[in-house]
Amino acid sequence: MPALSRFTTVLRLFSETRDAWTVLAMSDALEVPASSVYRTVRELVAEGFLEPSANATYRLGAAFVEFDRLTRLTDPLMQMGKPILQEVVRQAQIVCVGLLARLYHETVMCIADAAVPGATFHPSYERGRPMPLMLGATSRVILAQLPARRLKRLWEKETLARRTRHKQFEELRHHLAAVRRAGYAITRGEIDKGLVGIAVPLVASTSGATASLSLVVEAKILDRALEHRLVLLLISSAQMLSEDLSPAKKLASGR
Amino acid sequence: MPALSRFTTVLRLFSETRDAWTVLAMSDALEVPASSVYRTVRELVAEGFLEPSANATYRLGAAFVEFDRLTRLTDPLMQMGKPILQEVVRQAQIVCVGLLARLYHETVMCIADAAVPGATFHPSYERGRPMPLMLGATSRVILAQLPARRLKRLWEKETLARRTRHKQFEELRHHLAAVRRAGYAITRGEIDKGLVGIAVPLVASTSGATASLSLVVEAKILDRALEHRLVLLLISSAQMLSEDLSPAKKLASGR
DNA sequence: ACGATATTATCGACATATGATAACTATGTA
DNA sequence: TACATAGTTATCATATGTCGATAATATCGT
After folding, report:
1. Residue B82 contacts A where some CB pair is shorter than 8 Å
2. What domains are there in chain A, each with its CATH number?
3. Which terminus of chain A is more solvent-facing, meaning fewer CB atoms within 10 Å of its CB: N or C?
């Protein structure tokens, strides 16, 4: 019952499949009296997080577009990551999509993507889309970086509903240890059929967030040699990016 | 002092030039006790609107990226506008940038942009950036669409600090009436030196928001014939887009 | 202009925010 | 390792804003 959650519960109603809500529908869905929802919605509209649309419905507002631009311009990971990501895709010299992802609540979120001009496929990952924590190479290398305590907590949240055994957690721990040793992760078809993800960890000490750099390619064009080349490309790029992001000498910006 | 504003005043501190804040700095800037700011920040972090960064600073969070994606996917104007915008830029067959903009509070916000592959310049307009209401063709055609009452209110807000005369408002009214008759607006160098904006109104009855479709080109390549061609291109594209956005495809056309 | 629907205003009871201070927790350093 | 410092959370009495049913308006569709 903290104050902000009153607003976010309304905002969280909006989704890809349900993008316009009337106040009455919100009132029903949230089981909150209409008069209260009206008040809440009014405030959200005033601040630009919602806006009135056709037929007395409301949609997500332009404030999100505005703040998203600020994150694009100011987030060090995006700022420095985007050009490197594009360079990775270029140097790969094959049809592929590059991704920059990070931990976000109990999901992994892609915060930048770069496709070759004539990309023949679209991975599920795309900027701003929360993805499952326990699937895909991109997530794997992020999990592998987490301190044991944090990992345990996430695992517990993740498997709350499902009945899972402790043994499975130990298996995960071992698997992640192997990933950590190898320095990269590869998964095949875990997220999209026919696509392979190759990911390496990003150490962004300043940014705090644990992140990863990855490439998605079609399984059918990936042979052993190419796989090796891409892993090396990713590792060296991640190295470079991690250095860019590290204790930025004297030139601190805020304070 | 409604509840949401407590949070937005914090969020509004973040800008292009000041992207990382400590709690103490916020407390100073807002003249609110640190203990209160800590509480507010904690809630914003919990919901993903802020996130901790290096040196006890906070930055805008990934929730904005998430919600921005939803607007990209679901806003009818962006959904239908983006492909048409790209088509406009393609058909222009010159070096140019296309823009889709709309009214947002007391500003005009670009919600989609499309540049030719090898664009040699960058207009100030870019997705998510609020722009002045009284400058540029893009804004002009939006103002020209507004009901008199609304225009008056915006004008008054805009000119609150500055001492302006009533006569100037009448001039604006007349100018906008001319724009309305012409069906388009052209401005030269009002926003960016050496660039020209050509804009036409978008009638998006469902979306509610008044919007515009525009092209930015370099002044030096724009002659009378080209100008004419681009205006026609914009008008026909806007026509198409407006129809896409209109209420229903019931066979009856005359209203 | 009309009826229907959407939105805002009202108000007592109640819950939550406020802000000074104290307690606690990282984080870095000798 | 222990200490110091900055950063963060907890505490608590009080004031202020919220809640939700209902009534009063405003707006929409025709």
Report:
1. no
2. 3-65 (1.10.10.10), 75-245 (3.30.450.40)
3. N
